[in-house]
């Protein structure tokens, strides 16, 4: 019964191999005068079809004679080398060395493995082997075949996936035929290795894969085809290289494990299991590492491509990042940082934008919460150097004193960046020769030196990002102007109506004083009308002051007395504490200064829990008096401070007008001072009011205009 079954499988195998050989030879002869349909690879396809037909005949002869010979192995190696050459010609069809660079070493390596296997197989066929040595020779033979088969499948995937859309129609069927041929061999040799012997029943069906290959090549050759031009992308190249590395690692691991099993004696199985466990654990730790993947990408870009960057992919990624909108997307400032950081795989970054006095201040953080950024992140003098030269600073070079921009020195780079170990690069964003921002990048997993290609790409991306920021700033200014116009128009109507009511109430009060007959009614009416009139006039005076930021003439004001008035106002709140005070005289308007400090203290109380103190202090700083209002409340994000805190009509309080912080800043400016904010979400806020001392020689009694900026 066993002999009968073996005879049936032998007959099936011979029949399928002969059928495959006939199909392959027929397609080869039909394709010979039409080989230009596969472009410059047409001749190689015809030769590979003939060689594959000879391999099928050799398999049929070996199966029919039930003998072991070297001829089928030689024919199979020739078949694999022929189709590897076909793939090489398809990749070479565009004639560009840049397209061949990632593929040539892979094909050469697979061809070398195939030739080496052929030589080893020839030597082994001349030796007489038995028992364990025969088993080891069989396993090495199978592993060589598996390595070439896996490599061939990877190349087929690369061949099709790396082709442009218009070329895939010409490659679909040939790639499918090769995939069928090598996929069948992959399963065949895998089963042979696991079983430890040759699966004759499955091997008898190899003729089916030959027939499938012939049919796919014939279908792919029908019709007129343009020359196949391949452009393997960097992603496909990286995936191919990664698969090859993993394949070589697995084959090496199995080979070493088998050698240990053979040489380990009584502890062979234990040694093999220990090695496999350690090797697998090492692979799970090393292969997913971002550092390893970054090194592999840099190595491939350096040795296999003419340019470091795939500019099409970089531009598409930049456009997707910077242009993503909607409620769920990050703010524009964070997207700006991310779009620049993605170029170098940087994990974090900052965006600094010009403040009210020309200095750079923090506008956004991206994945970098731990770095401390001062309120004055980069001073105006240093800013001018970056604006004039467009210098991209490599902070590692600056720390080592190797590279400083033209006309610059080390002091132009802020110390807080040089002191932070993760700070890596500063990229200025210039729009029409004006610096609109600065991106600071954190060090990537695999840091490297900048070269001319990095600088060129960063300048282009920086200019594009700067245009986005400038356009966004213009849109915000237009929207704010429109809101001001609407506000002023509404206030004009409100003031007109209130003036009429106040006049009517005043007239009514005077008439009542003259004509009311009942004294009680007259007294009650007088109190009511006079209170209403006073309230309306006070409201009218307050509304007329909003939006102007004007103060009366500046005068010498004892700052300590102002501090005492503010503390008296919040006497009922035990939270407010004076941390420090000194005897200073400032040039200011007393009522406006009190109003500013009361507003800041009240905001600090509102932002803090009832049991958390709010500190108020007065100190001297150079030629200025410094008022600090410090709380440990909820804090604010950098984006909120930059875009919303001082914007009128934007309020986080229910029913608020959103003009308190705006008015406070305008009043401080009118007193020739500065209002600064340092805040971190979840940690609290510090508001700093700086006013000139009365003894400062550069000051006079003329109040500043609302739109005047202090240098």
TrEMBL record:
Keywords: Kinase, Membrane, Transferase, Transmembrane, Transmembrane helix
EC annotation from Swiss-Prot or TrEMBL: 2.7.13.3
One MF annotation (Gene Ontology) recorded for this entry: phosphorelay sensor kinase activity
Gene Ontology cellular component list: plasma membrane
Keyword Disulfide bond among UniProt keywords: no
Reaction it catalyzes: ATP + protein L-histidine = ADP + protein N-phospho-L-histidine
Enzyme class: transferase
Pfam family, one: HATPase_c
Histidine kinase domain mapped to chain residues: 493-695
Bilayer-spanning residue ranges: 6-31, 38-58, 103-124, 144-163, 175-196, 202-223, 235-261, 267-287
SMART domains: HATPase_c
Entry protein name: histidine kinase
Organism: Novosphingobium silvae
Gene: prsK
